[in-house]
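Bug #77: duplicate submission created two jobs. Keeping one. Sequence:
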Amino acid sequence: MLTYASVIVTFNRKASVREALLRQFNQTVQAQKIIVVDNASTDGTHEYIEDILHSHAEQVKYLRLDENLGGSGGFYYGMKEALNEHTDLIGISDDDASYDKDYFEKIIKAAENNPKDMAFCGAMYDHEEMTAETAGTAKHLLSDNTLKFQWATKDEYLNGDFYVDNWSFVGPVFRSKLVEQIGLPNKDFFIWFDDSEYAVRMHQLGYKYHVVVDAHINLNSDVKADQVPLWKKYYGFRNEIYTIKKYGKNKIVSNTYPFYMLLRKYASVYLKNSEFKGRRSKALKIFTKAFNDGMSNKLGKSIDPANKGKY
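Kept job's structure:
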C-alpha cells in the first residue's frame, strides 16, 4: 500500500489542532508521519498538545516557525519536511479540516488504481452538507490568459470521480514526485491564492486533480463575506494579480486584465453594502495597495495581521 505524510498548519487554534491530530489518529490507514507546522502561535499550542507529541513521538513531528509566515509559509515548510520522509504521497490541510476516517484510505485506493494521476482531493462538505460553495472548492480553468476558474457544480459529484484544475489547500494529496517536479508552494504569498498558483503550475505541466467523490472532508466554517478581514482580501487580490502576470500565456492580456479587475473591486466596494459598510475607505486603500504590489511583484508579509489597524 502507498504511504503518506500528513501536514497540518496551525496558528493560535490550539483546540482545533488537537482535534485535527485526534482525527488523524482515527484514520483507517495511518500516516507514516504527521507534521504539525506551528506558525509561531502565542496561545500555548505546544503545551496544549505536548502530551500527544510525547505519546506519539515516532509518528508526529512538531515544527515551530520563528514567526507567523501564514498558511503559504506553513505549507511550504511542512511539505519541505514531508519530502524528507520519502513517502509516496503528501496530504496537506489547515487545522479546521475534518476528514472522514476513511479519507486517506479512499485517496490511496484511487492513487493505486490510477498511477498516472499525480494529485487527488475529496468532496468538501460544510456542516455535513454539500453546498454550491463547497462543491465549488473544485474548479475548472476557463482561460490560460486571465487564469479565471469556474466552480464545479454539485451535479458533477453524482456520476463518480472526475477531474478539475484547482482545489483548495484543504485536504489535497500529492504524489511526492509531483512536488519534487514542480516545487513547493510560494511561501511569499503569506495566505490565499497559493493553492490556485500551485494549480496553475500543475496545469502547465498537464496535471489535474482527481476528485475522489466518496472521500469526504467536512469544513465547519461560519465566516461570512462581510466578516472577512480586509488584510486577507489584500493578500488574495495581490497574489491573484501576481499569478496572472507571471503565468498568463498572452502577455498583453495578462498585463492589462488586472486593471479591469481593480475597477471591479472599486465597484464592489460601493455596491456591496453589507460587505463593505463602514469600511469603504479602508477597502479602497487595501485594493489599491494590493494592485500596486501585485503588478510590481512585491510579495512577502506586507501587512502583518498582528498590526493591521491601518487596514
